[in-house]
């Protein structure tokens, strides 16, 4: 008799509720985590405010002026919020499950193992980062939509908002895939304590418009690597361009189509790597 698979939505909602109950059991710790998250965002914003006192745009002739770039920055905060709220803590916990044998129990449950190790803990304290990102985008869009903000006021409609949300999800899918591949290496390494370090080094490149890399020499090498090998540059650049429209260029170009392909291929590859790693897993009791 085959096992009956539970509703994945119900399981996810149970995870979310249990995580919220746990966070509310230690409210002061939760408040401090929220404060730390907002402090990081405030310092990040302040840094670029200082930078824009000395330059008109990030990158020469890129169109990423102050308000356009703050839309870009808000987009990064939203994507980071999604990843850190739903996946980061779980990816870090995965190596502990391998070391302590907790993965044995996950493999025995009548539910997809990747789903089970991806969502058990929801870090609600990271949500303020996404809220601040949305507010930063709204303020920047308002500045760009008024007369005098730039040569032609920016016109925002549902044709911008819905594609923006869609490409944010595509970007989150790419980042999740990278994280799953890094976490899967724990099965071969035994205990991957450097997951967050690797994650920071890799994702540090997607925090800036891709135009700054499109120069001769090492910039082009970085652009090619993080666009076609590990496609993290499209994660933030495509959704931000949907709203900011730097240089007044249409956002619907090869990069928009490539972002969809990159998301699908990344999810497929990460799924295969995860299952490949499970075939190498040996029970902690063996």
- Helix content, binned percent: 55-70%
Total number of distinct structural domains: 1
Q: Note the total helix count.
A: 12
List low-pLDDT spans.
none
Oligomer: single chain
Task: Please give the radius of gyration in angstroms.
Answer: 20 Å
**How far is the first residue's CA from the last residue's CA?**
28 Å
- Main sheet specs: none
Give an account of the 3D structure:
- The protein has 286 residues and is mostly helical.
- It has one domain (8-279).
- Helix content is 70%, strand content 0%.
- The chain is built from twelve helices and no strands.
- It has helices at residues 8-25, 27-51, 66-100, 102-108, 113-118, 127-145, 158-184, 186-189, 195-203, 218-229, 233-244, 254-279.
- Helix 3 (66-100) runs parallel beside helix 7, helix 7 (158-184) runs antiparallel to helix 9 (195-203) and helix 7 runs antiparallel to helix 11 (233-244).
- The chain is globular.
Draw up the topology in text.
Elements: H1 8-25, H2 27-51, H3 66-100, H4 102-108, H5 113-118, H6 127-145, H7 158-184, H8 186-189, H9 195-203, H10 218-229, H11 233-244, H12 254-279
Helix pairs in contact: 2-3, 2-6, 3-6, 3-7, 3-11, 7-9, 7-11, 7-12, 11-12
Short description:
The chain is an all-alpha fold and 286 residues long.
Summary tags:
286 residues; mainly alpha; 12 helices
């Amino acid at each position: 008799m085959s096992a009956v698979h539970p509703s994945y939505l119900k399981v996810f909602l149970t995870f979310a509720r249990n995580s919220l109950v746990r966070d509310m059991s230690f409210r002061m710790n939760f408040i401090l985590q929220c404060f730390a998250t907002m402090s990081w965002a405030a310092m990040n914003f302040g840094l670029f405010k200082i930078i824009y006192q000395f330059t008109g745009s990030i990158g020469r002739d890129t169109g990423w002026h102050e308000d356009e770039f703050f839309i870009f920055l808000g987009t990064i905060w939203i994507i980071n919020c999604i990843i850190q709220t739903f996946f980061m803590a779980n990816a870090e916990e995965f190596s502990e499950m391998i070391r302590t044998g907790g993965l044995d129990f996950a493999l025995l449950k009548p539910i997809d193992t990747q789903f089970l190790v991806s969502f058990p803990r929801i870090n609600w304290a990271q949500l303020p980062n996404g809220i601040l990102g949305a507010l930063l985008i709204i303020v920047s869009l308002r500045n760009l939509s008024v007369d005098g903000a730039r040569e032609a006021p920016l016109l925002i409609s549902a044709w911008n908002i819905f594609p923006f949300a869609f490409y944010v999800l595509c970007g989150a899918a790419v980042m999740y895939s990278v994280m799953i591949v890094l976490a899967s290496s724990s099965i071969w390494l035994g205990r991957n304590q450097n997951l967050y370090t690797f994650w920071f080094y890799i994702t540090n490149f997607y925090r800036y418009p891709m135009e700054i890399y499109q120069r001769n020499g090492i910039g082009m090498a970085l652009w090619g690597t993080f666009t076609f090998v590990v496609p993290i540059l499209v994660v933030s650049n495509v959704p931000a361009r949907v709203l900011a429209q730097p240089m007044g260029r249409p956002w619907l170009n090869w990069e928009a189509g490539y972002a969809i392909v990159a998301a699908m291929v990344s999810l497929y590859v990460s799924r295969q790597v995860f299952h490949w790693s499970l075939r190498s897993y040996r029970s902690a009791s063996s």
